[in-house]
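Q: I'm writing up a methods section and want to include an example of the input and output format. Could you take the sequence below and give the corresponding predicted structure tokens, formatted cleanly so I can copy it straight into the document?
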Amino acid sequence: MSRTDLAFSEVFGPLEGLVLTHVASRADKGGDLGPGFALSCGYSPTMTIRFTAQVAGAYEHPEDECMSAGVSETEHGDGMVLTFQCCTYEPDDQDIALGFDTYCVVTANQGTAYGAVQELTLRDNVLRVVLDLDALEALGLTEPEIEAVLDVDEQSLERLRQGLRHILAYGRADARPRVLEL
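A: Here is the clean output for your methods example:
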């Protein structure tokens, strides 16, 4: 196993409680409406979250019946982390009823949103993601656009590309990104 593979499995391998969990918004709990409320009231974001990722790739978790692809700012999973996940089986009736019949996006703070990617491009060594404004609060983010410069080898880039292609095609068609360039 290469150093990059080892780092990816250390960051994204142990999913303990992270795999396909649903996070209710604060508004659903009767709390502060947070940044999502401001966005729905016409706030137009002008910032892009930018970082350099030292780890990128994809990993299948047979014991958890899911696949993950993602990027991390550090080899230890510190800083910005963006993970995309899907099940390795077809969604069942319960998944459909709960809205879990698509891929999910998970951030470093374990914020989770399903079907939230509007656009995703991977050009050269830059991953650009545009998220649904409605998903920002659940993900713990303030801006919908994320850009990661991937400081990884070609093999890691290719694994990331293949993993994203598989994950973002999972589940219902209306939740897939409207722009997907890998």
